Amino acid sequence: MNRVYVCSCFGITEEEVRARAAAGAGTPRSIASACKAGTDCGSCVRRIQALLGRGAAPRRHAAGCRAVAVSAAPLDEAA
Known about the structure:
With 79 residues, the chain is mainly alpha-helical. The protein contains 3 helices and 2 strands, in the order E-E-H-H-H.
């Protein structure tokens, strides 16, 4: 059997996440409570969200930071 690891910090596989979801863990937080996946480095949280059918959440900005709008218009080279 080929194991696909979701959380390398705690050795949690996709199969384990799906089993926990089938048992009622429907959020990344409830998965974390059940098996610790997503509680160390956090790099697996987006994959857990995808496995739960929630899609990837948008990244949050640090407090006080504002998103910068980027214009699609070409820059005027003469300016």
